[in-house]
TrEMBL record:
It comes from Stegastes partitus. Chaperone that specifically binds and folds nascent G alpha proteins prior to G protein heterotrimer formation. Also acts as a guanine nucleotide exchange factor (GEF) for G alpha proteins by stimulating exchange of bound GDP for free GTP. Residues 441-454 have a biased composition (Low complexity). Residues 441-460, 475-494 are annotated as: Disordered. GO terms for cellular component: cell cortex; plasma membrane. Belongs to the synembryn family. Interacts with some GDP-bound G alpha proteins. Does not interact with G-alpha proteins when they are in complex with subunits beta and gamma. It holds the Pfam family Ric8. Residues 479-493 have a biased composition (Acidic residues). Gene3D superfamilies: Leucine-rich Repeat Variant (1.25.10.10). Keywords: Chaperone, Cytoplasm, Guanine-nucleotide releasing factor. It is found in: Cytoplasm, Cell cortex. This is Synembryn. The keyword Cytoplasm applies.
């Protein structure tokens, strides 16, 4: 039997904690997975939320407080029943129970509600902030970020073992994602430096010289729990870095971002407990790397080589190789390409523009010298073929990012670009850049002058077939019969006049 809301409220008013706990247990079990209710039920839920908010401010047994907060967490999922939860008093109460210093009172709460209750309160607060623009505005006005940030800074800088801050980090991410002014505030509070320190603690990194980290094979793989905390930190750092992406960093900021980039390199390469864990961690790492100033990404390559390193021209390519494998996996899955693939495409494109060794390495892997010219580029099963297929994708952003990467790997040379992709596939990017005539436009690329003069040597197979390659399709086509074979001179003239007439009509 489903507990009656009025019955629960009556027992709350009487202060019968045992009865409330029993009734709420039944209520939570019944509605744990429910999200949609009619208008009458929503009103009852509002009344229950208001009663519970008063109830949890009294002295409750830990089990009663926990089940009450669990009920509020269920109620906070319904956007249309949030009324009582978005008041200043409610936000202060939830923040206080979640262990956040609100500054509302000078008195310290000596009652220990337990870690479970603090997590439940933070879960409710996360739901409320996520679901209510009004709560977002009030949380900003009430300076909840400041109290939360002070808590996190103290814990990050302490000597206690890291971990157990997931919901505090989740709330920090939500506040900075939904309120632009809080990103600015967190940046001014040395957010990049402190959160980088949080990453270092979570991943137990050790520094060598400069911006290089020491690798310790004896450390266990990153666990699912640790990776989730790391991901929340990465997402918050993205909110800060993306806001200031277009600004040129000063010397101090550049040092901060280089230190962060070194830790992100570790995130890309560190072993994880499970393939899904690694994939998720790498995905958020790539997102953040794509938001950092390009001038600060040189630390991804400035790492000493060892016997297991991927290298090109004496430069460590382990990070670039990891990004390449990550891109390949995202291409193979083909899901949510705009969200999941475009960040790594953009990162590889911009890195290839400014780092010669990165471009050479990626070109060797993606655009090796052509040998098989009997198939169309988009039909190739290699990385080149997968990227060429995206050049005609229905999503404009995906199409542009794939074409841009290949164009940069060709050093923005039109003839080389057409050679590897076919004129039909290349036409979209060339038209957008005004290069359909095959010439580079003046000022077409600010990076054009930086490209080295490395040669593009053709294979023997390509040289033999070059004269027979159809530039539109990018492959050797089967010879077609002469359409005028067997026609008399008069018939040829008549066909020519017909074609001229058609051309004239098209030009009118």
């Amino acid at each position: 039997m489903v507990p009656d809301v009025e019955q629960i409220i009556e027992n709350i008013v009487r202060g019968d904690q045992d009865a409330v706990q029993l009734l709420l247990d039944g209520y939570n079990t019944q509605y744990a997975e429910c999200f949609f209710f009619n208008t009458e039920e929503q009103e009852r839920r509002k009344h229950l939320a208001a009663a519970l908010l008063c109830f949890i401010t009294s002295q409750l047994q830990p089990g009663v407080l926990q089940v009450s907060l669990h009920t509020l967490r269920i109620l906070s999922r319904d956007r249309r029943a949030l009324g009582p939860l978005v008041t200043d008093e409610a936000l202060f109460t939830l923040a206080h129970l979640g262990g956040i210093r609100t500054g509302k009172s000078e008195e310290e709460d000596g009652e220990e509600d337990g870690e479970v209750c603090r997590k439940e309160a933070l879960k409710v607060l996360c739901n409320v902030v996520y679901n209510s623009p009004q709560a977002q505005e009030r949380a900003s006005a009430l300076r909840l970020l400041q109290g939360l940030w002070e808590n996190l800074k103290q814990e990050i800088c302490s000597s206690e073992p890291p971990g157990g801050h997931f919901y505090q980090l989740r709330l920090l991410f939500l506040l900075t994602a939904l309120r632009p002014e809080l990103r600015q505030q967190l940046n001014q509070e040395r957010g990049v430096s402190v959160l980088t320190r949080a990453l270092e603690r979570c991943l137990a990194v050790q520094w060598a010289d400069g911006y290089e980290l020491l690798s310790d094979p004896s450390l266990p793989p990153v666990s699912k729990e640790t990776s989730q905390e790391v991901i929340e930190v990465l997402k918050t750092l993205f909110n800060i870095a993306h806001t200031f992406y277009r600004q040129e960093p000063d010397e101090e900021e550049a040092a901060l971002y280089r230190r962060l980039a070194s830790v992100l390199r570790h995130c890309l390469l560190v072993p994880c407990d499970g393939e899904d864990t690694r994939e998720e961690l790498q995905g958020h790492t790539v997102n953040l790397l794509s938001a950092l100033p390009l001038t600060c990404l040189d630390v991804l390559l400035s790492v000493r080589l060892d016997q297991t390193s991927h290298q090109w021209e004496g430069v460590n390519m382990d990070c670039v190789h990891a990004l390449l494998l990550f891109m390949d996996r995202r291409l193979t899955r083909g899901q949510k390409l705009k969200e999941k693939l475009t960040p790594v495409l953009n990162l590889l494109t911009e890195s290839s523009r400014v780092h010669r060794e990165t471009r050479h390495y990626l070109r060797q892997k993606i655009l090796p010298p052509l040998r098989d010219v009997a198939i169309r580029p988009e039909q190739d099963v290699s990385l080149r073929g997968q990227l060429v297929r995206l050049m005609t994708h229905v999503d404009t952003d995906v199409k542009h990012c794939a074409a841009e990467l290949l164009f940069v790997l060709c050093k923005e040379n039109v003839s080389r670009f057409v050679k590897y992709t076919g004129y039909g596939n290349a036409a979209g990017l060339l038209a957008a850049r005004g290069l359909l005539n095959g010439r580079r436009g003046s000022g077409d690329s600010q990076y054009a002058a930086q490209y080295s003069s490395d040669s593009d040597s053709d294979t023997e197979e390509y040289r033999e077939a070059k004269a027979r390659i159809n530039l539109v399709t990018g492959r050797v086509e089967a010879e077609q019969p002469d359409p005028m074979e067997g026609m008399t001179e008069e018939e040829k003239e008549q066909e020519a006049r017909y074609l001229i007439g058609m051309i004239n009509r098209l030009s009118q």
